[in-house]
Specification:
Rna Polymerase Sigma Factor, Chain: A, mainly alpha, elongated, 163 residues
Length: 163
């Protein structure tokens, strides 16, 4: 009967006869209810697009049920392959226990990220900023280099810097 129907009618017949079976096969392979529903729809969409070519290629040997289940299995396998390559994580799954504990806090109350311990330290274990800070009353950041902008803050030394 499917062999004589138009593509739309044949697909509709396949949906009525095999939609539960197709869903069960896909769900057995994928294991996710919602993804199985999507893949079942994709299976029947592929079937609708390819039924004419499949009927012409196999003529009297066309077995709609086997053909449809092969499409369903291939869709499920491709979905599993994609899942291994790219994993989609819903935003709801990104919450951790630590975040759940902090739900009552305001965003501004969370500590700002800091550099890891030892970042920028030399081998002696001392903070490098301690080596480059101003010594006694000098305002030189780098020894031997005096900034002319600081002359406004230390006018009594301006004559020494102009030499």
């Amino acid at each position: 009967m499917i062999e004589t129907q138009s593509a739309a009618q044949a697909t509709e017949t396949l949906i009525h006869q095999y939609s539960r079976l197709v869903f069960q096969v896909i769900y057995g392979l994928v294991g996710d209810w919602h993804e199985s529903q999507d893949l079942t729809q994709d299976t029947f969409l592929v079937a609708f697009k390819a039924i004419e070519a499949a009927r012409q290629a196999s003529s009297a040997n066309f077995h709609a049920k086997a053909w449809l289940l092969q499409i369903a299995a291939n869709n499920a396998r491709m979905s599993l392959r994609r899942r291994r390559l790219v994993r989609f994580v819903p935003f709801s799954a990104l919450r951790t226990e630590e975040q759940d504990e902090r739900d009552g806090e305001l965003v501004g109350e969370r500590p700002a990220p800091v550099q890891p311990a030892g970042y920028g330290m030399d081998g002696t274990g001392q903070d490098p900023a301690a080596h480059h800070g101003p010594a006694s009353g000098d305002t030189e950041a780098v020894p031997g280099v005096v900034s002319r902008r600081r002359a406004a803050f230390a006018p009594h030394r301006a004559s020494a810097w102009s030499e």
